[in-house]
Amino acid sequence: MAESDVDTPAEDTAGGGDLPVALADPAYREAVIDLLAVIAYGELSAFERLVEDAKLAPSLEDKLALAQMAGAELAKVQPLVDRIALLGGDPFAAMAPFREALDEFHAHTAPADWYEGLVKAYVGDSLARDFYREIAAYLDPETRELVVSSVEDGRHSELAVDRVRRAIAADAPLGGRLALWGRRIMGEALIQAQRVAADRDALTAFLVGGVDRPGMDLAALGRMFTRLTELHSDRMGELGLEP
Amino acid sequence: MAESDVDTPAEDTAGGGDLPVALADPAYREAVIDLLAVIAYGELSAFERLVEDAKLAPSLEDKLALAQMAGAELAKVQPLVDRIALLGGDPFAAMAPFREALDEFHAHTAPADWYEGLVKAYVGDSLARDFYREIAAYLDPETRELVVSSVEDGRHSELAVDRVRRAIAADAPLGGRLALWGRRIMGEALIQAQRVAADRDALTAFLVGGVDRPGMDLAALGRMFTRLTELHSDRMGELGLEP
Known about the structure:
Two copies of one chain form a homodimer.
Chain A: E1 13-14, E2 19-20, H1 26-54, H2 60-75, H3 77-86, H4 91-108, H5 114-136, H6 141-150, H7 157-170, H8 172-199, H9 201-208, H10 218-238
Antiparallel strand pairs in A: 1-2
Helix pairs in contact in A: 1-2, 1-3, 1-4, 1-5, 1-9, 4-8, 5-6, 5-7, 5-8, 5-10, 7-8
């Protein structure tokens, strides 16, 4: 399928002006819009949940710190929205198919206390970042740069590491509970990611590649999950928790 | 009262480095810390409430717009926190005395729907801005600049004006309800401001001035309230509502 009205004035640009030529492929473009939309809704929903979880903060200082972590997520939404519009998509319609999976993720991982909120913020955010960075390797450079900058670490993770380590040093059973909690977040993330993959053909087709575009075969997908799991374990260790 | 350990190396600076000389007066400094703290907690609580109210948005686009309005409030908190610390105050301890009044304000003005939320965001935010701008006239230039920039319009008011005008054009009774709602917000704001003024001696003493520093006499306070009421009426008119 090639769009009949694609204007390619130069070799490295595609329809709509100065977009990379890769985006002239409608299937790829559709997959990119899906990807940017799921990241955007992920950031927006993470923002909302972090603000909700900030209510559990034991002090105004901690509440502000978590709120600022939320604000950093929110600030990443607009560039994604703008990019989807530039690609000819409707940003909000594009986000709609991902709402259920992400809302379900949050509904199933609602923190019971401040420490569960911190672990979720740290582990969930890092997991999303690792995953989108893996995917970014298969994107055109412009989209890759946007995706990587959209998930970059706001350096707020110190809050979680510091508070959780101090709390479990004073309360060992809390460490056991939070370790289980971290596993649950990882499990819910996998369940919802699986669901999105099953629902969104363009995104899945992009991930596994095609004749003219490299993608991940099953072995590569397996290796990616191994890397994500290892990074998750490292992070649990950083928090002082059993992976 | 003069602090014994104030170091005044130059005429235009006061203790703690390069602070304006006005801040060498401990009573003035205390009032400034109070003022910055009430603004900071006001922004932080407005942020939380706007995110809460964004849940009422009829579309993802409107939700994002209100969330961004909230994010703009949050971004103003850190410079105030930093300034309070520079003045030798504990920013979070300084905010504590204002929590009850501001939390009460929000508890008594919880919007029942999206439009009440928009009117509250617009009217409440503007009222705070007008009030702090009035006060700013009595501040040293550095503090004044910080206060004015902390309450400047994020240009998000178009959202409220556009959405409310369109809604009442299609639903006249809504206009009547929102007009009453706007008055209620103004009333609650006055009740809580009155309460803060009664509780915080340093702030009140600063407002009414002293032998060596101009302030507001009762007539000036009255004129200020007249101006605030007029601006509030103008804004209600902009929304298409009876003041």
